[in-house]
């Protein structure tokens, strides 16, 4: 067979891929000849048998083989796509709870069907997580016919869904969602005042697309569930004015790496004089925080680089994906400082109700896996923080893309001049070019320059809404003849770039034009490629059917059906439109094939980067857009010594090479020295960011430990149905509180995190709780009204959550200053752990008192109400 170990070409052999996987691939391929004769009823019967045998460990390997083979057969029947060998290999790696690195164009979307279908046999649910809603919707619509044929229900979570819709879709066997939606649903479930309002069920298996973007790039960006609080401060405008008067390196020291500004002694005295105070840290008049945020907004956060202004609002740009980070705000007053700087409406500050980091959230799943095109460079981090191995899956065809050496210039001006010349030379011969920039500003500079030089049809893709609405089509067509595309970061775009142009998008555009002409003029005025009897009949049928539909419904159909080819027709008009689409697609193959050949002869897609990123992974994501499935292609980066990477992390590193005003790129020994130094700088930055994430993880672990304890306690309160149950929970939880106070458990020690402290000394508290609750029941003659209990429960939960919010704010403020403990020769993590333990103990004390008082008060009211 094709993938038996002895027959695998050397280029496809990967030392870290177990021979066991290759044996499984062979067995899966062997079933192809048998499965092709199965009816859909036979396939469904086999799937049901696999469901029954899912938990039989002795049949596990055979179950995997049969499930994968059946999924492969159904995909071929319904989509015309048959998983090739390396895709099966990737599916096996994902099924084992590992990360599969698969290059762009290798069909990761189809690969996901294999582990998803097998894991769905458990009946406990599968989550396929994407980085944006467009990809979730596209993948669900494309693949649901495969899952449904196998007997699985498929769900999709969208932003504006109500609770019942979410509950239904999460209850499906396989659910497509985004990392933000599922994360916020979890936080909302935790804060729910009724079990019936929860939408998620037990976390089982999760497959993350673009896993490096979610688990590494977003690792330090917590999901924050918040509520607005009234804007009570008028300090923002004055703080901004004062910040503009401060002199760098005299009144404050800017720290570009961490985006912080530290006051000097002279700066502190200057501010104390302005505000006529001896204590800038005074919590009753906290000017220092406002000044620091104003400085940060002026120095480190720039329009069209870190954010855009849309509808008179500040919208944050995700630096890893180049998209708007919807509904995200900077915390602790920074967002309001930036709003004040840009003279837009200053929005109310928010108070954090609950939060969680992606690493902590995704650790809740019983089995976690992920796929991406660029994971190898972060292999150590995946293994250390998530216990996830990275397996590089070989490409179906050898990669032909040539990654050319960087061109390095002294100034940005010289860099962009050379970049424009390179683009123009390609455009004149028709070679497609994709330019990757790191900021909106740079993308617009390049686009406007090209337009002044006569390239009016260059495509711009960045976070601005007018440029991002047609994202998928822009990316898909960037391989077409004469195309020039300028885009910000390319992570998670999810669309293949096909040389010569993407036929689906071309035919979709043609289809829209045809339907519009049919509505307005009828079929006689259409000038199509040939006088086809079949074509004319379809056009005539469509024109007749169009009369029964409102034009807005037709428009919605064309907008919402992403992939007509795989769409299952719901009406006769649907069916005729699909027939027309397929006929146009077939007739265009010859012409598109000629165009593709022409682009290949020109060298394929040329990728041009305008600067290095903080991580090599992001650079590689851009390069990976060229050379898909063995296509020819090239990539090259244009770098300057004035780029943001240099200015932010080591602005003096290239001092010997500055001031020459050399318009040409470096060469010879100068090039070798500059290139080597640049590589070393990028490596240092990666290590710096890794250490930051590592340090942040240690602090988050402490907070999240207490978070877990609190919500365990809250769950006890939420589910109580009588005073006996409540008091048992209350007093048994007291055990933990005493342990924290009396035995001083050090929560920074990972060993203690795994100890089950609930059972220690619990018996004495359960005994007391039983006595008290029994006395209460006897005293009130068991006449306590369930209605009053429900009211008391909701009030208790409301006040508990307010106490939890206050705890979170206290811990957040201490986190910002805990680093100062290092100056006193104390470990900040240990001090932070002790502070969290003390604050949490106070939280539990107050909560217990609250519960007891609430029960007494409500029982007294209840007695009065009952006349006892």
Automatic annotation (TrEMBL):
It comes from Nannochloropsis gaditana. Its EC number is 7.4.2.8. Its main location: membrane. Residues 3-670 form the SecA family profile domain. GO terms for biological process: intracellular protein transmembrane transport; protein import; protein targeting. The lineage of its organism: Eukaryota, Sar, Stramenopiles, Ochrophyta, Eustigmatophyceae. Has a central role in coupling the hydrolysis of ATP to the transfer of proteins across the thylakoid membrane. CDD domains: DEXDc_SecA, SF2_C_secA. Residues 89-248 form the Helicase ATP-binding domain. The keyword Plastid applies. This is Protein translocase subunit SecA. The keyword Lyase does not apply. Keywords: ATP-binding, Chloroplast, Membrane, Nucleotide-binding, Plastid, Protein transport, Thylakoid, Translocase, Translocation, Transport. ATP binds at residues 87, 105-109, 496. GO terms for cellular component: chloroplast stroma; chloroplast thylakoid membrane. It catalyses: ATP + H2O + cellular proteinSide 1 = ADP + phosphate + cellular proteinSide 2. It is a peripheral membrane protein. Belongs to the SecA family. It is found in: Membrane; Plastid, Chloroplast stroma; Plastid, Chloroplast thylakoid membrane. GO terms for molecular function: ATP binding; protein-exporting ATPase activity.
